[in-house]
Amino acid sequence: MPELPEVETVRRALAGLVVGRKVVKVDLLREDYLRGGKEWLHRIHDARIVDAIRRGKFLALLLSNEIVFLHHLGMSGRLLYVPNEMPIETHVHLRIRLDAGTHELRQYDPRRFGFFAVMQQNDLSRFPSWALLGEEPFTISPSRFAALLTERTRPIKSLLLDQHVLAGLGNIYADESLFRARIHPARPAGTITHKEAATLLRNIRNVLKEAIRYGGTSTNDYRKLDGTLGDFQNLLRVYGREGKSCKRCGNAIIRRVLGGRSAHFCPVCQPSFDAIPT
Ligand SMILES: [Zn+2]
């Protein structure tokens, strides 16, 4: 699933290619891909895109008439900038035609866990999946981050995946951040010291920044706006590396199911809490 770096990569490309352009027409090829607010759809036509913003794993195009076009890529979604005359592929659910150009935006999503929603900008703060998002990894203070972990019995990995606590991390970057911070994914969040929390937050930011620099991770369906692959999959240290040797100590990386999700980690570099001398 696209996580913060993938969504941010798409956002930056949109900022360069479509901000300032006018929306000529929106074709909804699959009705149920638009959540609610169909009455706003006609308001998009002829509006200018004034900004492309990201919050957690959400993208939003802000339009000149105070309308916002919200998008979540879901599991397998791709937002693509393609030539207007390119034949429409199966699984393209939405087209956004733009003025004065040879290209348009198309949303491709075979598994259809993604969605679009259109609403007035004032209503965005009340849209449930946006309104309930937790703090952003790049702006949360270290003390606030440490406070979020206090007295929590849930495994730290599960807490990092909770979009209501911290918005933007998914399985890939939670595993990579915990490895770099040398914290076992199953460790109860409340046992993490303030110093360890600061180290973890620093590593979360470093991993996310590096992944953005490499255009995100294309292990599955994710593609950049121009349809090409991201490159960060070549730099992963634990995610998807079960049985391969740890790049730090040489031991085998293992995978365990934790809270219904796979956790990849090095049992030597990330000792379980019971094994940590007190
Ligand atoms: Zn190791």
Task: Describe it.
The protein has helices at residues 4-17, 41-44, 128-131, 142-149, 156-161, 171-181, 194-213, and strands spanning 23-28, 49-55, 58-63, 67-72, 78-83, 92-98, 103-108, 115-120, 254-258, 261-265. The protein has 2 domains: 4-131, Alpha-Beta Barrel (N-terminal domain of MutM-like DNA repair proteins); 142-275, Helicase, Ruva Protein, domain 3. The mean pLDDT is 93. The strands form 3 sheets. It has a 4-stranded antiparallel β-sheet. A 4-stranded antiparallel β-sheet has the order 2-3-4-8. A two-stranded antiparallel sheet has the order 9-10. α4 (142-149) packs across α7. By secondary structure, it is an alpha+beta fold. β6 and β7 form a beta hairpin. The chain contains 7 helices and 10 strands. Zinc ion binds next to loops. Residues 246, 248-249, 251, 266, 268-269 line the site of zinc ion.
> What is the total domain count?
2
- How many distinct helices? 7
Number of strands: 10
Q: How would a crystallographer describe the biggest sheet?
A: 4 strands, antiparallel
Weakly predicted, low-confidence segments: none
What pattern of helices and strands is seen along the backbone?
HEHEEEEEEEHHHHHEE
Q: Which value, in Å, is the CA radius of gyration?
A: 20 Å
In the CATH classification, which architecture of the largest domain applies?
A: Orthogonal Bundle
What is CATH's topology name of the largest domain? Helicase, Ruva Protein, domain 3
CATH top level assignment of the largest domain? Mainly Alpha
Ligand inventory? zinc ion
Structural class: alpha+beta
